[in-house]
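Example complex used in Figure S2.
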Amino acid sequence: MLALALPGFVHAGQVAQAASPDGRIVVQLELDGEGRLAYRVLRDGKPVVGDSRLGFIFRNGRQLLRGLQLENQATRRADETWEQPWGERRFVRDHHNELRASFVEKDHDRRRFDMVFRVFDDGVGFRYDVPAQPKLAEAQIVQELTEFAIARPATAWWIPAFEWNREEYLYHRTPLAEIGVAQTPITLRTDDGLHVSIHEAALVDYAGMNLMRGDSGALRAILTPGSGVAPVVRKTPFATPWRTIAISDRAGGLVESNLILNLNEPNKFGEVSWFKPHKYVGVWWSLHLGKQSWATGPTHGATTANTRRYIDFAAANGFRGVLVEGWNVGWDGDWFANGWDFDFRRPTADYDLQGLAKYAASKGVHLIGHHETGCAVSHYERQMDEAFALFVTLGIDAVKTGYVCDAGQIERQDLANGPVLREWHEGQWMSNHHLRVVQDAAKHRVAINAHEPIKDTGLRRTYPNWISREGARGQEFNAWGEPPNPPEHEVTLVYTRLLAGPMDYTPGVVSLTGKNGLEIQSTLARQLALYVALYSPIQMAADLPEHYEARPEAFQFIKDVAVDWDESRVLAGEVGEFVAIARKQRGGGEWFIGAINDRNARDLKLALDFLEAGKRYRAEVYRDGEGAGWKGESRFRFVRETREVTRADAMQLWLAGGGGAAVRLVPIGR
Ligand code: NOJ
Ligand code: CA
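Predicted assembly (670 residues):
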């Protein structure tokens, strides 16, 4: 029996099928002569993902792979629109067709599972849904046999998995056939121009999925290990995270896709208006420059006097937040190695926690808390509830967490004095840890921004206090990186890492200079454009106050730019080359455009047809000046100019190599 059968697509062995609402994407399930299950994905009748295996290898039982038969299938249509409390757009349409196909082993243990596919106009999500059953009461999953057999030659943008620096790598751009072991999201462009992103949604109580190229050329899931008997141990019933395949003709279509959010559960916290998207400054860049230190002593950054200076600066310039790192006990000595020394309740002697909170409040500023765990994660969990409770008394309602250690070196200790086990940042235990943190923080009305995090899989929909995270090579590499981020990096991030969700990249280093005079490979205008190009509901103005004071013209954009949006659109772009994004300020009529570029100068012509009809706008344009480029003094060539435009206009912008443009569009006479 075929569901939503389309003539002409039926293969021998095909047992089930579903199509997207617009009919262009079709998923087919097939059983071969040995009862092995595969799926494939077609678009406009041609395979994008060819026959790809599904199944599991267990530690506590035979593999679940052969001898399967279809027992049942059902389809369901969904079309609903939901609202994001904050985000890159306010309303999200979830329009898909779902196929649930139930499989059972013909003999042996008659173990069973459902495959659930949701087919959207812009891609596919699928998961295994394993019911409770006597012969599979607990699944010790050694590997998930899920494959993605990309059916066309393609170029891939990817970062390696299982390397020591976690997610903080420059992206490789290689032929599909040269992918090694990659993390997701991974982005592909087929030679015939289709854009594909493979990732996952709703990574809950499960290990993160990586991809390894198998002998057949197909990409195969490889689960992040853990300290237990298998990467994933689950009692039935359970469902795996969704495996996602976003598909678009345009590179920007991947960025605009809501597939991952739609596959997550709705908001579990209800009202979260206590979280206010905001911009922040902080004692941070000076630490990475080595001008100040996390450790106490003569160069300690988190002193009362220095923090007051940042509070004053924030208040004077309209920033809500001031991040202070190094405020608590535990940073002295080799903090990388001594996470167990951190105390998240005790400030250093030279940091007047209570007094500073009062001072900040008197100026309408909120301190942002910092919890660097140094990967002593159980140690942190024992303190976090008290630590959040303390912060709340101080008006601190956002906390940056951190998990600095090499991959696989997270320290877990279930019982005080018990053995210390090693976990991976993206393993099952950490997927649960992060949810323990966001759930506990939510009780206290605290929002979380995790660095060295687990990958983003859209859980901000379910837990909307999980506001941002790092999880890629951020601006910090421009302070001390070897090398610093090249011009291609951020134009790749938009189409790779950022497809997973918001990133705390910490833009806005207008001095364009790292440690020891290191040249940041960016023009000045590009630093401004990053606020629009790289979405996050919190955005840092990362540079030192004195550097902003020296460049008031550029700083004006950082002060003006919005952080919460009604709508976001990609106006133009290609993976790893350039992007121009327009976003409409939430609760206001202004639009902002951010365009960033690789190392090759280019001209853009952007239609402004997204502007409201009948309105005139003042366009405040911050762009690369003549002769600007990503090296030397040319990086500072910069022009700020004003034009008047309507939706009938197109905006011509020249982007320097390593350059960018930032535009604020203000309705006139509103
Ligand atoms: C790494 C984070 O990415 C960075 O932002 C932070 O300053 C340090 N860890 C210290 O926690
Ligand atoms: Ca980091």
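The CA atoms of residues 356 and 658 lie 40 Å apart. The mean pLDDT is 97.
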